[in-house]
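PROTEIN SPECIFICATION:
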Amino acid sequence: MDIKNLLIIFLLVFWSLNTLAYPKCSSIKSIEKYESLDEKERLKKTHPYLLMAYCNTDESEKYINLFVDLFKQSANVNQLLHAISIEIRRADRSEDNKQFFIILKKIITKIETKYPELKKDLRFINLNYVFLTSQSTYQNACDYLISNHVSFNENYHEKLEVIFHYVSLSNCAAYREDFNSSILALINGLAFSKKLEKPYNRLKKGHFLKLLSMRYYDIKDYNKSLYYANASIETFKPEYNFTTGIGVAYEQKGLAYYQLFNKLDSVNYYFDKAQQIHKNNNNLSRSNYVYKLKSEANLETNSDLAKRYFFEFFNYFQKNNRNNHRLESWLLANKILHTYRLNKLQYLDSQIITHRQVVDTLAAFLPRESLKNQLEISSVLINYYKVNFNKDSLIKYNQLQNELEFKRNQLNIQQKQTNVNLYLTNYQKEQELANLNLLNQERSYQNKLLISLICFVVLGSAFYYFYKRKQKQMMLSQLQLKEAEHDKLKTKQKLKEELILRKEQNEKMLKLAYDNELKGKELLQLQLQKKQNEVEAVQLEKQTSANLLNEVFSALKDEKVNDANLLVRKLQTNRIITQHHNSLKEIFESISPNFMHKLNKINSSLTEQDVLYCALIRQKYTTKQIANFLNISPKSVNQHKYRLKKKLAIDKEQGINEYIANLESK
């Protein structure tokens, strides 16, 4: 291969790498051209220094330092942090983004080192949180956000950063199942959203009301969930009548309405309205998510609809390789299987999801989920292995659930302590506010002294009286608070003792249940072995009889009797049916007691030969095996199957083997 061809191949490889990777190196602009663009146009482009650091590997460090040096001017800080945040979100949607994220990580680290004052800046905290959600676990991102939470006053100039911070805090608290803190963050954010300019304040207010509806739904306060969903819808109208936010608000209204009134017509109306809004916005992800809500709503009343909506939801997120809602889809599949006691879910004869497939997938989700999801998944696994008699798996997931319950109890205790501390902090703030009010009143009284000495004396006396009264009330409140804390400590100690006692009782009950299950399993195995021996004995007897008949009938053939073969076949068939029908029928009725009853119910005029054919088909005998058993030709077996299919009124499209195999489960 000559040098020219090698050069062409090299250029093609280099071009393909640059076109597949993010960002595209072909879009590099000079810093002068970039600075000449207005603010909106800049946000659409990647900063030249970032592009050069990514595309020029040898000089990457140089351009990283140039970009970080731009933070020296305070006017650039907000714009640059916002640009990095946008690049993180863009890169997160690209498959080939690893190298670019390495550069972004270096830049964030250098900013922290070179400008330590920015570490406590709300804008930088939000940026780092966004980076961690993309490159680390959500748990790590939330730990960082909560540990670096900063307070800000009402006049903080970057109001959208405050809004984003409140929403992120609420989501992290909900992830930790700390719904009190989550709702408190949303209420604070709702109050702050009113400071935005119109009509943008209505948009953010509507989003906070929608999130409040979600949180109250999570804690099963459906009345408040419905109230905030309605409030969100009314707030979005009329400026934001077709946004994704109002669509989600209609989803929440449908969910709360279902829990409160269980009126499916109204519930489906709200879900359809939400789905239509999402489709108009081309938000296919959210539109397909509504199918999950519809499936859950119709689960108890309409199994066909529930399954159809489930597969619409499931197929979209599987086909498009969307990680969000994957766990929810498998949990919903298990819920449908459990509700209708199915071993598999089937859709249009082309897609099948088995119960074992659901269980294996959920087990794979288990290590990386939150505590709440881990508890739900482990419960599903325990229920499955109880039914399927898998002792090792049952013990394993029982131990896991005990550990998770212990962790949840610890978190609940910590949460209660946090709530107590929060109550004390709020109480202290109230007292400080009361003292501040008293000081303000005192200053007011001093100003009024200049107007009238008489008013000062009267108001001063009144103030002194109420001040003393307030002090007495504060002392009483402190005493009552101490008594309440003492009572709470006693209650906690009693609860701990009760939990220990209850755990011991549960362990004893589990051990007894396990022993009983083991004995039952051994007894069932003995019974099955006994039935197997009986079947083998019947088959042996049948073989012996057939051999004996063959010897007798061979003599008849030698005498050249007219139509001797037909006579032999009829004698053999009738003899086998007469000899073995009763014993086979008795054995089969002991194995499948409902089968004979259902046959008689369908057609009471079935002959003994018909019943024998049904029993052999139910035992999964093939046509050839039945022919050998009855000592007749396979063609005769097929003819009898055809006549038997008419007697049982089976559809032409359905086979008799499938019909009889499913007869007992009907």
In short: The chain has a mean pLDDT of 78. The longest helix spans residues 453-558. The beta strands are 344-347, 351-354. The longest strand covers residues 344-347.
